[in-house]
Amino acid sequence: MPLEPFAAKYAAFGWHVLEIDGHNHRAIVDAARLAEAVYDRPTVVICHTIPGKGVDFMEDDYTWHGIPPDRGQAKRALAELRGLRGRIEGGDQ
Questions:
Q1: What pTM was estimated for this model as a whole?
Q2: What is the mean pLDDT of residues 8-29?
Q3: Is 38 domain-assigned?
Q4: Which of 10, 41, 46, 69 makes an SS bond possible with 73, Cβ 3.0 to 4.6 Å?
């Protein structure tokens, strides 16, 4: 059975639901602050993400889940991620 729509399911049980871009650090911090301010019900933060974001040979490829890259792949991945510094921080992807 499909798991979606998460937000509607949580809302149906009275939860405070926040949906954000899970790659946007500012959105994560803001969501945590919003969640702290809600006292009358539980809060769930649904972070929409792309697996392997920022690494061309890993991005959106579920087969990398739980598999460590070899040394060469790790070096390449780290170089690509370092090149993204500043572009992802504010969510401007």
A1: 0.74
A2: 96
A3: yes
A4: 69
